[in-house]
Amino acid sequence: MASVRIREAKEGDCGDILRLIRELAEFENLSDQVKISEEALRADGFGENPFYHCLVAEILPASGELLGQGIGSKIIKKVAEVALDKGCSQFRLAVLDWNQRAMDLYKALGARDLTEAEGWHFFCFEGEAMRKLAGK
């Protein structure tokens, strides 16, 4: 079984964070949507007023498949712990509709599917639409 250590991200992790973002985007067939740089991650997450909080899961290698070893559960539990420690009342996750394994995990851990329960859809303003809204 793999050993997992979850820790606060450090500025020096930004290269690995970007690599993981790109790998996830490739897995989700969304590589063309990655429009962030290592420098932007560093500035946005480790500046005077960070826009995001990041945890790093260090997974010590084990032979065989990593799926089904509880790594995702450990990560989500740590996110809940950190969120509560920081005074958050909730955290939200986005998952593509074809990723049933992730949806099943989140539900098993107690999450409500807001699309099913309340009909929520997520929207994103970016690029030209965002500039137009801002009048720039």
Automatic annotation (TrEMBL):
Keywords: Acyltransferase, Transferase. It holds the Pfam family Acetyltransf_1. Residues 4-135 form the N-acetyltransferase domain. Gene3D superfamilies: 3.40.630.30. GO terms for molecular function: N-acetyltransferase activity. It comes from the Eukaryota. Belongs to the acetyltransferase family. This is N-acetyltransferase domain-containing protein. It comes from Colobus angolensis palliatus (Peters' Angolan colobus). The lineage of its organism: Eukaryota, Metazoa, Chordata, Craniata, Vertebrata.
